[in-house]
Amino acid sequence: MIKTGKYDDAIFYLEKLLGSDKQLPTIGKLLNYSLLKKAHYLNKDYKSAYDVFETQKKLIDSLRTEQMLTKIAGSKVKYETEKKEAQLELLTLEKEKEKQKKNLFLIIAGLGLLLVGLIAYFFCKNKEKNKKLNNQNAILERTIDEKNVLLKEVHHRVKNSFQIVSSLLYLQSENMTDKNAKLAIKETENRVRSMVLVHQKLYKEYDLIGINSKENISDLVKDIFESHGSQGQPISYNLNIEPIVLDIETITPLGLILNELIINTMKHAFTGLKKDNTIDVNFSKADDKLVLKVIDNGKGFEGDIKQSSFGISLMKGLSKQLKASLNYNSKLKEGTQVILSISKFNILP
Q1: Which residues contact 103 (CB under 8 A, 6 or more apart)?
Q2: Which terminus of the chain is more exposed, N or C, with fewer CB under 10 A?
Q3: Number of folded domains in the chain?
Q4: Residue 133 is part of which domain span?
């Protein structure tokens, strides 16, 4: 499977074989660890390759230690046997006393030299392995650093592209006289700004994987109120956001949905000159779901939501992407509560 490039299959069966209760000979285990290490390396999973290398190294060291102890034990038995024979000969053959002492000394000296030689040999081999391991670690660190640099460059370019699009939309809206067209461009600009916030967090915080939900949602709501205005009404907002680190596949569509909900609320929920117009945004983890609530104390509505608008279609598509349900609870003169329950998400440590 490794020769044919099926690295994942090879890894699966090798790990299954090594993890089974079936007793494998040591040579067989070493061969399987070598193949598993090679599969991880070719699959560019260098950390797993390194972990397998460590396991293989420990098995080799254990085997060598066992062999060395066996050899030393054998030498000790031989020494004790020869010593007893020498003692018996000393009792019967006084003339051989000096000769036996000399032979005994030579045997002990030879064993000592052998032991010193073995220790020196294993010390050198271990030093060589450590040097090789350090070189491999340095290569892995360089590879990881290069990967991070490339990812940062990509995010930087994406951020610049978003900013260009946002600027073009702003310029286009400024030159428009049609109110509806200008509003549509403004809403599109806000959607782009929502995505810009995610990439801005990635780039500034050097975290290429996760985004803190509390910081992102707080910045997004603040940005919407500053850029979109309050539609001529005094509107305030309250935030109750649980700090959860989410991957960009979750936080990006979540931000776009929140952007649509807040803008729709600001446009349609409040009429007249009430002084206590308020939007509450709550976000938390409940059991096995993420729950976003947008609550207003506006005029409310009866009947069904208009399903043909672009904003509603966008939220429905993004909700489907997150395997989420989007529910509206509203009563006339009592406000509206929108609940987004997300089933598909990744929480990072």
Answers
A1: 82, 86
A2: C
A3: 2
A4: 7-146
